Each structure stands twice: as C-alpha cells, then as structure tokens.
Amino acid sequence: MRVAADLTELADLVADATGPVLVSGADLVAHTAVLRHLATSPVGPTVALVLTDPPAPGQATVREERGQVVEVGAADASGVFGGALRVGAADLPALADAARRAAGSAPGGACAPDARLVEPVPAPGVSAVDVASAPGVAAADAPSKTGAGDAGGGPLGAVDRLVAGLAARGTLIFAHRVRLLVAHRVGDEAQRAAAEAAVAAVDEDRAELKLSVKERDDFFTTFFVSTWSPYVTKAAARIGIGPTGVTMVSVAFAVAAAVLFGAGGRPALVAGAVLLYLGFVLDCVDGQLARYTRHFSAWGGWLDTMADRFKEYVVYAGLGFGATHAGFRYGWALALAAMTLQTVRHMTDTWYGALHDEAARRPKVVSADAGGIGGKLNAASTRVQADTGSVSYWLKRTVVFPIGERWALIAIAAALFGPLVALVTVLVWGTLAFAYTLGLRTLRARWMRVPVLTTVDAGLHRDDGLLARTLQSMRRPLPVALVAVLGAAALLGWALWAVHGGRDVPGWGVVLALVLLAGAASRAPHGGSLDWLVPAALRAAEYLFAIAVGVAGRAPAWLIFGYVLVLTLHHYDLTARLEKRQSAPPLHAATLGWLGRSVLLAAAATAGTVSFALATMTAYLFVVFVASVVLAWVVLPARARGGVRSPG
C-alpha cells in the first residue's frame, strides 16, 4: 500500500500509476469485501462507494440515477460519498488534476493526519505494491483499521474533494452501494468502535453469497430460481467451475431442450421443459458465480450476452421444427416471427437504456417538463420501482415479459400443450409487451429530449456498411426508416400471397422494396427525441426484407431461419459492444452492412438463386463472425500481452 501525506503527493503517485487505482480516506471502517467489490466492480472504469448514512461535516453528498453519480454536493442527495473510489486508467489524469487543484484550495494542501489515500488495484500487466491477502485489492483492510480522518470540519475532506473534482470534470462515475455488508465513515473513537463491532457481527462469506443474487430481479427468477440457485453457486465455486464453464453447460441444456421439443411426444416435451428450466437456472448461476468469486471479464460479459440469445433462438428453432413435424405448415414462420420480434425488442431496450443514461447525466433537461405526461409517467414509474414487493411492482416487472417469464412460459406451454401453443403464446405476450413498453417509452423519450445518438458512433451501431454511408444524408432518419419497415413488410405480405396462390413475385417488386429500404440510409445526426428507434427499425426492415426474399424465392424455411439467426448474432455482438463501450469488431467491414446484404439478396431474387444466395451468405457471415470473435478475444489480446501492436 502506498500512503500519501497530502494531495500533492497523491497526484504524483497517480501520475506514476499504469492501471486502475483504489483511493480511500482514513475514516472508512468497512468489511474487506466492500473494497474488494469496489475494486472489481464491472459496471464501469470509475466507481465511487455510496452510503445511506446521514452526511457528517466534511462529507460530500451525491445524487445518483440509474447507477450513475450525476451530481456531487446535491441538495436532493440520494446518498453520501463513502470515502472510497476506484478510478480507471483513462480517468487517472483527471484524478491527478483534481488532486493538485484540491491541494491548492486546501489549507496547506494537507490531508487528514494518517490519511491513507492510494492503493493500486492489481490488474493484468500492472505491478501491485504491497498487495494484501484479499484478492483483487491492495491493502484493502487498511481503512478498517485506521482512525478518524478529515470529516470533522466545514470544508470537504480530502477524498471528498477528489470525487467532487472528478465530477466537475465530467468524469463518468458509477455508484457502488453497500448491501448486507458494513461500511461507515467515522468521526471519533466511539463511532469507530461501533462500526468495527458491526463489521465483526456479520458473516462475510454468507453475506457475499447472498450478494451474488441480483438485488432486484423478475418474478419467476426471484421466487423459482434464486431461492435455491445460490447453493449451486457455492458448490460450483468449491469444485472450481468458472462462470464460463457454467455458461457452456447452460447452452448444452438449452440445445438438448430444443432437440427434445423438435422430436415431439409427451415424454420428450416434458423432458425438454425440465432441461430448459435447469438451463435457465444455470444461466442465473453463471452471473451469481462471477459476483461471488469476483471473476469478471469483458469476455465473460460478452459470452453471457451472446449465449442468452443463442439459447433462446435455438429453442425457437426446436419449437418451429416440432410444430412443423406435428403437421402445422407455418411452424418455422412462427419461430422466425418470435426471433425477429425479440431481437427488435432488445434493440429498442438497448437504445432506450442509452437514452435514459444520457438523460440521467443531464438533470436540467430531464426536469424541464416535470408536469407533462412524460414527467408524470417517469414519476409514477419511480414510485412503483421504489415500492418493492408490492403487487404493482411485480406486475410492472412481469408484464414486460422478461427472459425468466419467457422461458417459464415456453417450458409450461410446450410440456402441456406442445410446440405450436408455446410459439403462439410467446408471440402474443411478446407483442403485447412490446406495444406496452414502446408506447410508454415513446412518451417518456419525448419528455427527456436527449439526442442520444449524437454521443455514440451511430454508423457503426446502425450497421450501415460502406454502401449505406455513401448515400445522401437525410435530415429526419426515423420517418424514412419506418417507411423502409413498411416497404419490407409489404413485400413479405405480397410474397406470402403470391406463393400461396402459386404465383411469382416479379423482380421489380423486390427492387422497389429495396429502394424503399435504401432510402433509410442516413449519415445525419440522430438528434430527434425518437431517433433512438432508428437502429431497431433498421433491424426490422432488414429481417423482413430477407424473409420476404426467401419466401418469394421459395427457399426452405429452416434456411431462412438460419440466415436471420446469423444476422442476430452479428447484431447482438454490436449491441454488447455498445453496452460495454467497446470498439467495432475486427472484421466488421467484411459483414457488408445491412444495405449491402440486402442488395445481394435482391440480386439473387432477380437471378432466381435465392436458396443458393441464402446458404452462401449464411455460411460466409458465420465464418466472419467466428473469425472476428477469435481475433477480438484471442489473437489481438495475445499480441497485446506479447508487446505486438494490434492492427488498425
């Protein structure tokens, strides 16, 4: 552990750091696990400890929204700064600057006597100094052994000035709340003794196991999974299975369930339902195991996201095959519809979340129309979310049809009534849930008035590709994207009507739909209050167009499903990177973009080679996807560790 005598020395220590650092004040008494959790928190690079204790003199109050510290020193505070924060490597220059400026504004630039402020956080490629026995934290037990610090005067204490300085520089700071464990800032010996007694009274390992379960989860997960999954989590930790291993077993269970659903017959359907339930339990266990063991990684987060979608869509494929095998002509069509609906829903979830996060960082914009319908909806939602355990709380969490409820419905419906009923119920509930969330979010988004897409690489996450980027910019992208959706849907309807009547869809019809689709290309800033819907609209337009071309070309339904499935994997890869603020996949340009792929399909339709084109493009995109994954998660990190500069 490195100890800084004053803020100037702290700035010098930070300047020498090559990785994240953990900064704490001398007045913090806490479980070692509190600092370990702070040091390993996966929510973001810079994270501050936030407590619910009443603020004492010299302590900074904070206001947080959606897990972000949006204001320090707020009058309407939601908590008090806990005296410790982890600062990511990219934010270290801002921390050093904040320390120097705070030193200049403090009497003599001094911290509290015996202040212990800097502890390097061990990370790959970073040497730790005096690392304590607690994994992932350097000298994490030091704060819990120190006396009172800088909390007794009027001005902010040293570490509080640091977090205030970071916030003033626009640093994105996430909040880490303490639950079940103990953390207090103390001002005298009596408070210190009381806090240490509270620390000793808690079974740290038992509390950490409970903390591995999400604080707020959905109804089915809370009452039918999390009541016993922690026992599986602890058993997995004891025998040494990692989160990735649990994820892969979960995938195997889902694939086996899909095979049984496709086979049909009551015993197979019941067995598939049981395997699907157990697969979902393991899907929860992998996250719980990561939180319990604090083994987080970018790869694990990415894999969990991709595996969840792959498992669900493979189950849809099994249900579609089973319904078709049982004599229903449109089983694969229902599976395609379920996959398309769920993917478009997830795209709106991602972009609305980005919108909401941006709004949280702009509190003045959010409160500008508190009396409007959007403001009233936001206030009502906040009240319901705060009333945990109430009927309205659980109804709100269930009506949106989260993954636990989807898997439970599929398992029950398939076991009792068969694959056809399972697909129909998923589609009906999913459509109603989508309409409900889309309507409410549209109203709230208009109230927020935040141009969210100006803060990200819209071209990348829209999956435009070279061809779309060469077209003329549109001033209002959303109406044009919606026209593209309607054009693709019209082509699909036309293709279904034509095929049912034994007719052919003329090539000019496909080209006309493609022209409407191409019109959605836009390099304009997405600054409208509803432009967060554009990426989801483009996904819907591309999927509908691909399905329509496949139907018009009389391609096998399973082949169309496979092509759209590979597209969803590609798009979920982009979504996972957006949520984790990561760069583009290594081979992103090779995927051709949504417009380039659509042009190739249109050409195949006019040439009468739709099945061949779908098979070729499916294989090509899958190979590109796998190669991109290997490059992103194996080759390039290995080169970086070996000192070889990564390409690009």
Describe the protein's architecture and organization.
This protein has helices at 7-16, 32-40, 92-105, 158-168, 189-200, 204-211, 219-224, 229-239, 243-263, 266-293, 298-325, 331-360, 363-366, 373-386, 391-399, 403-417, 419-448, 458-462, 465-470, 477-500, 507-518, 534-552, 557-579, 593-607, 610-641, and strands at residues 21-24, 28-30, 47-51, 61-65, 68-72, 79-87, 118-120, 173-177, 183-185. It is α+β, with helices and mostly antiparallel strands. The chain has 3 domains: 7-210, Spore Coat Polysaccharide Biosynthesis Protein SpsA, Chain A; 212-450, CDP-alcohol phosphotransferase transmembrane (TM) domain (Four Helix Bundle (Hemerythrin (Met), subunit A), Up-down Bundle), CATH 1.20.120.1760; 456-648. The strands form 2 sheets. A 5-stranded mixed β-barrel has the order 3-6-4-5-8. Helix 11 (298-325) packs antiparallel against helix 23. The longest helix has 32 residues, at 610-641. The protein is globular, with a radius of gyration of 27 Å. The two termini are 38 Å apart.
Q: Quick one: CATH class of the largest domain?
A: Mainly Alpha
The domain count comes to 3
Radius of gyration: 27 Å
Main sheet properties: 5 strands, mixed, barrel
Number of helices: 25
CATH superfamily of the largest domain: CDP-alcohol phosphotransferase transmembrane (TM) domain
Shape: globular
CATH architecture of the largest domain: Up-down Bundle
Our measurement of the CA-to-CA distance between the termini, rounded to an integer number of angstroms, reads 38 Å
Give the fraction of residues assigned to helices. Answer: 55-70%
Question: Beta-sheet strand percentage?
Answer: 5-15%
In the CATH scheme, what's the topology name of the largest domain? Four Helix Bundle (Hemerythrin (Met), subunit A)
Structural class: alpha+beta
Total number of strands: 9
Determine the oligomeric state from the structure.
Answer: single chain
Question: How are the strands ordered across the major sheet?
Answer: 3-6-4-5-8
User: Mean pLDDT, as a whole number?
Assistant: 84
Which residues sit in consecutive blocks of at least 5 with pLDDT less than 50? 107-153, 365-369, 643-648
